[in-house]
Amino acid sequence: MYKYNDFDTAFLAERNRQFRAQVERRIDGSLTEDEFKPLRLMNGVYLQLHAYMLRVAIPYGTLSGRQMDQLALLAEKWDKGYGHFTTRQNIQYNWPKLGDIPDMLDALGEVEMHAIQTSGNTIRNVTADHFAGAAADEIEDPRPIAELIRQWSTDHPEFQFMGRKFKIAVSAGEKDRAVLKAHDLAVRVVRNDAGEVGYQILVGGGLGRTPMIGKVLNDFLPREDLLPYIEAVVSVWNQIGRRDNKYKARIKITVHEHGIDDIRARVDERFALVRPTFDGIDQELFADIKAHFAAPEFKTASTEAFDAAYANDTMFRSWADTNLHEHRADGYSIVTISIKKHGDTPGDATADQMRAMAELARQYGHDELRISHEQNVILPHVHKSDLPAIYAALREVDLHTANIGLISDIIACPGMDYCALATARSIPVAQQIATRFDELKLEHDIGHLQIKISGCINACGHHHVAHIGILGLDRAGVENYQITLGGDATETAAIGERAGPGFAYDEIVPAIERVVQGYLELRDGAEETFLETYRRVGLAPFKAYLYPEARANAA
Fold first, then answer.
1. CB 472 within 8 A of CB 426
2. Is position 482 within any domain?
3. pLDDT per residue over 79-88, tens digit each?
4. How many alpha carbons lie under 13 Å from residue 175 in its C-beta half-sphere?
5. Which end of the chain has the least Cβ crowding within 10 Å, N or C?
């Protein structure tokens, strides 16, 4: 993973020093909250319903054990003993005191971490496939590309105060595990017909009040053109994007209004001007960055311990069947640690749990952890001989839930429990759904099914691209939950269809139960997933289960 150089360390120390002075001025009244707002947003500090919130960047989701230990320290020393992993592969602290935040940032700096550009109208934290460097289906590790983009975009003078935020994702696998088509810009590593490695560039994706699927801007971009091309894209949008209405300021609206062909022509024109200014410097930097991402030295060992545990321990076998994924190295697995115990808040991890995961990474995982956009934690490189010991250690800290990809592996935003923008609760709904299906003991019969919940139209819970999406809204002071069906966050991305009228807070869990029951009755055999069934039969049969009164009246 990337290690800071002297410039990085000095830059971060100076940024933190500046912000400490700004906080002192806010506390003594020299700055009003309105004056302080743009300064705090540049450093990842929000003002939520009950307190300030600090959002810490975890670039492309990669952490070392030492960094995870430091996140635990922040939770324990300056918050309420836990942190919340987000859909941007970041971590949020919901209860810090403003006067303590500069100390938190200094503590992060000690382990080469920061909160820069995790908020504001700028280029946000660059995300990536959480299996990067380990996945069996990838062309190469995409994290050096993400790090190159991170360094280029950090404090870029042209892109600090744009019309709206700008989100970038990177992936190199056949499977899309980074929700590429829901980003403002996405970089997908591909090969052309000649076998050369380059990049497919997507633009104009996004969720929120106007969900759109990203479009291909460039089918094959040579390696050496990546940064100047991205700069051309962001420059064009920054120039022609709308600023009269913040709800129409994202690049997805610009692409929609101008058309992809017009945007491509403008980008090509701008790229011709920008490219000579880079003069190969970016490629020298990229070569240096790549050296930081060398693969670990994988060991060779017997898998007898794994085979015995899998054969004789039903609990371990259940966990292995759901929480392990194929690794590119023989004898290894990718371990996903569920932060979704039934009834708990999705994405919340205690300081003790963070330290336990850090120790597992050091002892068994080549000192690497990843945070997924699905709000779970990954040990990307684990030899199968170590899996029984890892499972036993996870049980000790209540992180052994076997539900990855199942109905209780729910993505949920903080909702009205924390967020000042939310119009409905998300966390309690997620907790109740997970608890209900655990009681019914149906999860494994149901199979792969993704539920995602947002507490407002901003869609931080990615509900638009869920198999079953739930959007919480305010209807005349009463919480109302809309359901969408058939969304997809993968390489076959799709926006879910709204099923019909919304449901009250006490009606939403029974409604989800009816949808799932409908799926179990409609599917063509146990191997057909929810999404496959939905695409085969369409919305109408599911509506009949969701709204039984309408079906009865029609009869």
1. yes
2. yes
3. 999 999 999 9
4. 11
5. C
> How buried is 159 (Cβ within 10 angstroms: 0-12 exposed, 13-18 middle, 19+ buried)?
buried
Both tokens of 448, joined, read 């792969």
User: Is 392 found in the same domain as 419?
Assistant: no
pLDDT at 450: 98
DSSP state, 44? T
pLDDT of residue 550: 66
- Same structural domain, 263 and 315: no
Task: Tell me the residue length of the chain.
Answer: 555
The residue type at 224: E
pLDDT in tens, 333-357: 999 999 999 999 999 999 999 999 9
Tell me the C-alpha to C-alpha distance, in Å, between residue 396 and each of 312, 333, 364, 386. 20, 21, 16, 16
217 neighbors 264 (Cβ within 8 angstroms): yes
Residue 117 is assigned to a structural domain of this protein: no
What confidence score (pLDDT) does residue 549 get?
80
User: Of 368, 396, 424, which residue is a domain's last?
Assistant: 396
Residues 185 and 281 in one domain: yes
3 state SS of 513: helix
Cβ-based neighbours of 201, under 8 Å, separated by 6 or more: 185, 186, 187, 188, 216, 217, 218, 221, 229, 230, 233
CATH number at residue 13: 3.90.480.20
According to DSSP, residue 51 is labeled S
Q: Are 103 and 19 in contact (CB under 8 A)?
A: no
pLDDT for the residue 188: 98
Local structure of residue 374 (DSSP, 8 states): T
Q: What is the pLDDT of residue 552?
A: 57
Rounded to the nearest 5 degrees, what angle is found at the Cα of 346, between the Cα atoms of 341 and 350?
Answer: 75
Whether 325 and 236 share a structural domain: no
Domain presence at residue 401 = no
Closest CA to 513 of 462, 466, 468: 468
375-397 as b/e, with b when 16 or more CB fall inside 10 Å?
bbbbbbbbbbbbbbebbebbeeb
Angle at alpha carbon of residue 533, lines to 529 and 534, rounded to 5°: 115
pTM above 0.90, yes or no: yes
**CA 542 → CA 462, 466, 485, 497, distances in Å?**
21, 15, 9, 11
Q: What is the number of domains present in the chain?
A: 4
> d(Cα 352, Cα 130) in Å, to the nearest integer?
23
Q: Are 211 and 482 contacting, i.e. CB atoms less than 8 angstroms apart?
A: no
User: For residues 53 and 44, what is the distance between their CA atoms, to the nearest angstrom?
Assistant: 8
Residue 530 φ/ψ, nearest 5 degrees: -55, -50
